[in-house]
Amino acid sequence: MEASVIHVESTPGIEEITVHIFLHSDLEPQTSQTALRRGGDWAYAASTVEEFHNDCYQFYTHPPGVRSLVDEFDTHAVEVVKEWEASTSSNVSDGGPGTVSRKRDHEKSKDSDSSNEPVNKRRRLDIGSLFKAIPWPHIYVCPVTSDKPSITKGTHAFYPKARPTPIWPHTLDTFNNYLGDRFVRGAWIVPVRGRLPWTDSTPAVVLAPQTTQVVLPTEPFLQECCEITWTWDALSQFWQFLISVRDARNVGPIGFSFHAAPSTQGASPAFGFDGHVSSDSHRVAASAAALATTSQLFSVDHIKIYHATCYTILVRNILNAWSYKVARCSSDVGTDSLASGGIQEGTHTHGPFLGDDSRNRNDVVSQTKLRLLKGATLVLLDERSRGMLLC
User: Fold this and answer.
1) Does 26 reside within a domain?
2) 39 lies in the same domain as 164
3) In this structure, are 214 and 362 located in the same domain?
4) Are 229 and 342 in contact (CB under 8 A)?
5) Region (Disordered): which ranges (predicted)?
6) Using one digit for the tens of pLDDT, what is the confidence trace for 313-345?
7) I want to staple 326 with a disulfide (CB 3.0 to 4.6 A). Which of 204, 242, 276, 368 is the partner?
8) Distance of alpha carbon 342 from its chain centroid, rounded?
9) What does 43-84 look like in DSSP terms, one character per residue?
């Protein structure tokens, strides 16, 4: 800081002023005479203005100088420029036929290069109601049984590459205690369309049904943005798979239900449940967050799978291993093309896995299997529909 004193005789009512100079390190330093002159001008302007007038005063300094935008490596001597020959003067000056032909040649070369590459089409998402996407009934209650659940079956570890993360206020210790209680039930949430109100959970989308093509979903770990991609046929197969698991009773009495959201827009999470344990100061907002989470959960299309707690890990491993199967006929082999958001299987719309079985089953030579839940992060809820685990 630099301070100077000046006596202003021409300014009535002001005998002396003190000018304080505050300069940034990047600005050029000002001389004392310049600073004193500007300070006197400001003092005079502040003391003489008593009514409206047309005078204008400028109370800011000029901006600092800017360097040249051209550096040394951007400049080239004429000697280093290679010689070149211009085309005929008529084409250059007129820009007529020569320019048109050159543009057409460029378009032809571009088309020839792109003809060898697969066409990348934008996927079409289903934004309508999914109430009819899954066969009725939309709820299967747990069968009544007198058998006691076996805790030994629930001691299996999660599938490889699984990263179970407890949701606050739960920890790994409370989760293990939760697995040891044979009289408590929980539920895995499988999203169908939308994002669940937990930050690290995997969202889901549904591809729009095609009339001329069968579009297959892609596995989550094969996509840049990890998400579960469903089709109506995949949802139907997954629902039938859950029915078969329920009838087999290998994982105890389980039940499941499909909840269709009232609107087509999935709710974005208002609370960031990152799955880590928080301090005691956040316990006050736990009840409010739980209520908000429940309301947001029903704004997302999802499937809820109820089960005994001792089978929690086993049920999650079964969901990870499930694969969506699509039959490939001999007449359709070689017509597959990879598209953005799904695999398009030619133009066939029939087969043992695609509705009306009007084709000969002898034409089926292979099946395409897609593990739609592989690499996805699902949410485990406790008996009060509160988030407990991300896995």
Assistant:
1) yes
2) no
3) yes
4) yes
5) 86-121
6) 999 999 999 999 886 654 444 444 333 344 444
7) 368
8) 17
9) HHHHHH--S--S-----SPPPPP---S--GGG---GGGSPP-
Say if residue 110 is exposed, middle or buried (CB neighbours under 10 Å; 0-12, 13-18, 19+): exposed
Cα 326 to Cα 333: distance, rounded to the nearest angstrom: 13
pLDDT digits (tens, 9 = 90+) for 125-150: 888 888 888 888 999 998 877 676 66
**Token pair for residue 358?**
């009007």
- Cβ atoms of 215 and 347 within 8 Å: the answer is no
Which is it for strands 228-230 and 204-206: parallel, antiparallel or unpaired? parallel
Assess if residue 23 is contained within a domain.
yes
Angstrom distances, CA of residue 46 to CA of 40, 60, 143: 10, 15, 88
**Number of structural domains in the chain:** 2
Higher pLDDT, 34 or 9: 34
Question: How many CA atoms lie less than 13 Å away from 312 in the CB half-sphere?
Answer: 28
Which residues span the domain enclosing 21?
2-48
| Amino acid at residue number 198 | W
| Assigned domain for 288 exists | yes
Question: Does the predicted model carry a pTM greater than 0.85?
Answer: no
State how far the Cα of 131 lies from the Cα of 258, in Å rounded to an integer: 9
224 and 368 part of one domain: yes
Say how far apart CA 27 and CA 63 lie, in whole Å: 9
Same domain, 20 and 143: no
- Reduced to 3 states (helix: H, G, I; strand: E, B; else coil), residue 178 is helix
| Cα(207)–Cα(374) distance, integer angstroms | 18
Label residue 317 left, alpha or beta by phi (over 0 means left) and psi (-120 to 50 means alpha): alpha
